[in-house]
């Protein structure tokens, strides 16, 4: 099991048929997750296309996760958590933290995405909306959203199976100004492993 350090990102290459297991070691960490076609960075996992396909804002075990070309790139093969993963909120960036009152640089998922891709030599792309694993964003009947604490527990895991050769990027979200990473707002490390 490898470590996804708190506040940082990592990218892995998966061949079709392999899987990536991500473990919420401490139970409170949100992991922003992206997937790109290994042969074409312009094809990527798309939350807009996913929501229409599954008819929900919450993907569940067994769901195919679609690209912007409406074909499966990953499958949510296993989920031991309560299944609350966000598909609505964009990745945090320096602009988000400025809006929250941060005056200096703040680690963020957008920069983590691009740094992780650079580490493996994958071309820079746009920043698609991520699948925010374990991020609890309750949506009220009137459409209002709130920034909830994770419903996951230590050791909860998600396994994502690759439908095509792809690059999966994970960011242990650095958010420490709202309680998406638990009531103490402390980003934590997670674990991950590629399953042959």
Structure notes:
With 196 residues, the protein is α+β, with helices and mostly antiparallel strands. The longest helix has 11 residues.
List the helices and strands and how they pair.
Layout: E1 2-4, E2 9-14, E3 19-24, E4 31-37, E5 40-44, H1 47-54, E6 64-66, E7 72-79, H2 94-99, H3 109-119, E8 131-133, E9 156-162, E10 166-172, E11 190-195
Antiparallel strand pairs: 1-11, 2-10, 3-9, 3-11, 4-5, 4-8, 4-10, 6-7, 7-9
- Order of the strands making up the biggest sheet: 1-11-3-9-7-6
Total domain modules:
1
C-alpha geometry: globular
Distance between the termini: 13 Å
The largest β sheet comes out as: 6 strands, antiparallel
Strand content: 25-35%
- State the helix count: 3
Strand runs, count:
11
Q: Structural class, from secondary structure content? A: alpha+beta
Element order, helices and strands?
Answer: EEEEEHEEHHEEEE
What is the C-alpha radius of gyration, as a whole number of Å? 15 Å
- Averaged pLDDT, please? 96
Q: Are there runs of 5+ residues with pLDDT below 50, and where?
A: none
Give helix % range: 10-25%
């Amino acid at each position: 099991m490898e470590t996804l350090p708190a506040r940082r990102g990592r990218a892995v290459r998966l061949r079709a048929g392999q899987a990536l297991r991500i473990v919420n070691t401490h139970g409170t960490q949100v992991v922003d997750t992206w997937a790109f076609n290994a042969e074409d960075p312009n094809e990527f996992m798309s939350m807009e296309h996913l929501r229409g396909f599954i008819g929900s804002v919450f993907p569940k075990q067994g769901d195919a996760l679609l690209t912007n070309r409406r074909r499966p790139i990953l499958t949510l093969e296993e989920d031991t958590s309560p299944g609350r993963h966000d598909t609505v909120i964009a990745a945090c960036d320096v602009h988000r933290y400025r809006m929250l009152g941060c005056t200096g640089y703040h680690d963020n998922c957008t920069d983590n995405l691009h740094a992780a891709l650079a580490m493996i030599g994958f071309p820079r792309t746009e920043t698609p909306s991520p699948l925010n694993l374990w991020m609890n964003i309750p949506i009220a009947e009137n459409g209002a959203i709130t920034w909830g604490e994770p419903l996951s527990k230590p050791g909860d895991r998600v396994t994502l199976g690759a439908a095509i050769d792809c690059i999966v990027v994970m960011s242990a979200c650095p958010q420490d100004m709202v309680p998406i990473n638990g009531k103490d707002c402390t980003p934590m490390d997670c674990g991950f492993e590629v399953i042959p």
